[in-house]
What we know:
By secondary structure, the protein is an alpha/beta fold. Helices cover 39% and strands 20% of the residues.
Amino acid sequence: MEIRTILLQTRTTVERNLISKYNTPGPRYTSYPTVPYWDIKGFNIEGWNDSVRQSFKQDDQGISIYIHLPYCESLCTFCGCNKRITKNHSVEAPYIDALIREWQQYLSLFSTVPRIQEIHLGGGTPTFFSSDNLSRLISAISDSAEILPNATLGLEGHPNSTTLEQLKTLRTLGFNRVSYGIQCFDPKVQLAINRVQTIDQVKAITDISRSLNYSSINYDIIYGLPHQTLQSIDLTVHEVIKLRPDRIAFYSYAHVPWIKGNGQRKFTEADLPNASDKLELYTLGKQKLLDAGYIEIGMDHFALPSDTLSTSYHEGRLHRNFMGYTEDHSRLMIGLGVSAISDSWFGFAQNVKSVEDYLAHIHNGESAVFRGHLLTEEDLMIREHILDLMCHFQTNIPELSQQPDILDRLAEPLRDNLIALDDDQIRITSEGRPFLRNICMAFDLRLWADQPQTQLFSMTV
């Protein structure tokens, strides 16, 4: 029996109606408030620096550092990240210099030597940079801080460009995690998104990573890509399961060409699966991962029972920030580099988005931050609820007694069996998990107070 026939037999009219009803634009909630709803006018550098000092003084976990390395040698047309396409590697050294100087700016705010719990190299393509430059960057940070014994240090790598030398160098510096962007193994899809890599290439770099004792290997897979079919997902997830990564991020493709420009106009909306078909892609992939022994973690993530992300989820320690899901609940996350976002728990700050502006600000001894948001008490309360939903699929009811509008908005998901009431908790049901973003939107006071007049977010399904 064909894959589509099997899925359609289990897809009820009610489920199809839910897809139609809840497939609306919505945030992914890597923060609250979400970036379009930051109070930029109420933000200032002095207030931001004070929030960093406050968070640092209260730190008992160690801080996290996200470093944005924007350069790529070629454009992947599905990508929504801030990137700069070039084959000119002379850009590496000046950018590394700027990152080190920006780190020194933050050091001046700390009252003691910082303790680092987490470092993540994102991009762009971090492995665009040479081993020597990566070593220079990490050494400059570690020489001015204490890297905690159980720290998690990770990088994102392109299977086609990550080298043995880079992985060896970073492993020597304490890196123990690596994430590879797989996206899809279907050749037609790979051509459409300009990301061609073979199964053998992915296996080779995975084997190298394991031989160097990287303790956790993650694969990114995307569903909803142009020309993607159930057969595409079946092939991709089947091959991924054979390679057995410790973690898998199974993302929904976010089609936002109005934000990211021509990079996502190499194909048309007609080439994309519709909402119902897209959910079938997710349902198939999810079931194959669960059958293979992976555990569903929060939204879009899966991990083997042996992985620390699974342990963190089961122990109620899972956290979510701009880097995604993490078992490290560091309240202070410093973002270094162009467009990087920092989170002090009490505030957010984002760096300028152009490489030239970033380099100029840092060269002149200025902060690269150009916008941000300082959280109110109400913001902090809503942030906790949304984090609980995103990480644990549940949140407490008593705190909502003063928010009748939220409870009113939850009435519809309750009738549709997307949530359930258990004692003093709101719990997201298994039927409701594909609509997690919609349920979080019911709590988003800033979104409801100022409904967008244009589409700001990708579709939730």
